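ESCALATION

Customer reports they have been waiting on this structure for their group meeting. Please prioritize. Original submission:
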Amino acid sequence: MEYCKQHEIPIIPVGAKGTGTLVSTPNDFGIGICIHKDERFDLDFFVNGFVEIFRKYTDKEIVNQGNDIMYDDKKVCGFTFYDLNNMFMIISPISFSEKAELVANICTNKPQTKEVGYIDFMDRDDLRREVEAWLNC
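Update from on-call: job pushed to the front of the queue and completed.
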């Protein structure tokens, strides 16, 4: 928290369940999806949707590890979710730039168990177009 204050990094508490801190930079692709609880999809639906998009752009292994997606044995995105007022919200920053040092400086409460990576096989605009097509925006 102190590092964020010193470097004027905004902190947005979302009240998510079962996850640590999500670190996002202006280079990342951030997404939040809000759905009424009655139409609730499970988290795997969204994680697997992104895995399938990524697999179109690389021959390297892309792995769903629960609420994380791994590429080249490194975590490139983590999903979190929460329920609020009959709504189900999913949030994820998807890394498009190196930020291992930033994550290490921000996430000091808990040791990192997964190496931080980033997507280098597609660009943010490609991902935006793929997500729009997938969700029929």
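Sent to customer with the following note: The mean pLDDT is 87.
Escalation resolved.
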